[in-house]
Design a protein that fits this description.
It is a single chain. This protein is 38% helix and 6% strand. The chain has helices at 3-16, 22-34, 36-53, 64-86, 98-148, 188-196, 248-251, and strands at residues 232-234, 258-262, 267-268, 271-272, 290-294, 299-302. It has a four-stranded antiparallel sheet with strand order 1-2-5-6. A hairpin with a 2-residue loop joins strand 3 (267-268) and strand 4 (271-272). The protein is elongated, with a radius of gyration of 27 Å.
């Protein structure tokens, strides 16, 4: 492998694992659009990591150590017998019996049962830490944007003709899920304003546990190009319904008021998934939990969705369990994380 290919391989690995710097990621993205071989190498790496994540996890047997030591002692005795026989003349080295071969295979399986799950779990922990770092970066970006906009946190603009007032059932109420009567507002446009304002880069919005690929920001873009480019859900922030740093109602609960987390499991592909109402966590980290950003901009890992004020479920609007795509938070400190991205159709 020549130096160029070796460098490309290392950059691809960093890119797939989400560790590639934004400028290098953008350059690699442009090259992959033109270089089919480089694109195939990227796809192969993505498939390899995906396969590792799907490997089954096994609990090692309690007597693994004693079995291993017993096998070592048995091999030492065999080696001593062979050495003693060789002192008295030529000897044919023994071959492994089927039973011995089976023992070696069993030992290999035992080692794999211990090592592979450990490697996978270590990878998950690494992704969790890197994800927390990304969420922390988004918190810093949100804070900087708010400082420059009179304390207002990012919000998604209303579609033409919508007022953002009235009851949830009114015709003027903005929708955040697609429906027959027109396009929906994508709440992720609020977070994309951080990209447009150069407070954050596109790579910051991809959870390292799921990846997604980079894209080139073009003039006039108001939202992420697709769902794969953003892995985090943001508090309902459509039109005038947006958080303010100086809101007295939130001052006392700033450390408990969640405003962003790994993607909600309830809404995906522009649809409400009723069967996931009782999901315990985001799917970003295999349902094991989610990194959560709070109003005071600190980040915590939560294994369950009840991570808001007074154990508020951050994926639900109050206690509502049926969604048409027009629901709102039921109180000023009710966290209601909308879909990571809503297709405009």
């Amino acid at each position: 492998m020549d130096p160029r290919e070796l460098a490309d391989e290392q950059i691809l690995i960093d890119y797939v694992m989400g560790r590639c710097e934004p400028d290098r990621a953008e350059d690699l993205h442009r090259r992959m659009e033109q270089d089919e071989e480089l694109r195939r190498a990227h796809d192969s790496l993505v498939n390899t990591f995906a396969a590792m994540d799907r490997l089954p996890e096994h609990e090692p047997p309690e007597d693994l150590v004693s079995q291993t030591m017993q096998r070592i002692r048995r091999q030492k005795r065999t080696d001593a017998l062979v050495a003693r026989e060789r002192k008295h003349g030529p000897v044919v080295s023994p071959t492994f019996s089927i039973r011995e071969m089976g023992g070696v295979a069993a030992a290999a399986v035992l080692i794999a049962a211990v090592v592979i799950p450990s490697v996978i779990e270590a990878g998950r922990r690494t992704d969790r830490v890197r994800c927390a770092s990304s969420v922390g970066s988004l918190g810093a970006a949100i804070q900087s944007s708010a400082n420059d906009h009179g304390g207002l946190l990012p919000a998604a603009p209303l579609p033409d003709g919508a007022t953002g007032t009235g009851a949830a059932q009114s015709s003027g109420e903005p929708r955040w899920l697609p429906a027959g009567e027109g396009p929906a507002v994508s709440n992720s446009a609020a977070l994309f304003s951080l990209v447009r304002g150069q407070y954050a880069s596109p790579a910051d919005f991809q959870c390292p546990a799921v990846g997604g690929g980079s894209f080139v920001v073009r003039a006039g873009m108001m939202d992420f190009p697709a769902a794969k480019h953003i892995g985090y859900s943001y508090q309902y922030a459509i039109g005038p319904w947006r958080l303010r740093q100086d809101d007295d109602r939130l001052a006392a609960v700033a450390e408990q008021m969640a405003i962003l987390a790994d993607g909600t499991p309830l809404f995906e592909g522009g649809q409400f998934h009723r069967d996931r109402l009782d999901a315990r966590a985001s799917e970003n980290h295999d349902g094991r939990g989610q990194n959560v950003l709070y109003f005071d901009m600190h980040v915590d890992w939560a294994e369950r969705p009840t991570a808001g004020v007074s154990e508020d479920n951050i994926f639900l609007a109050g206690q509502i369990r049926d969604y048409r795509g027009v629901e709102r938070p039921t109180s000023p400190h009710d966290t209601f994380l909308l879909p990571t991205f809503t297709p405009n159709r």
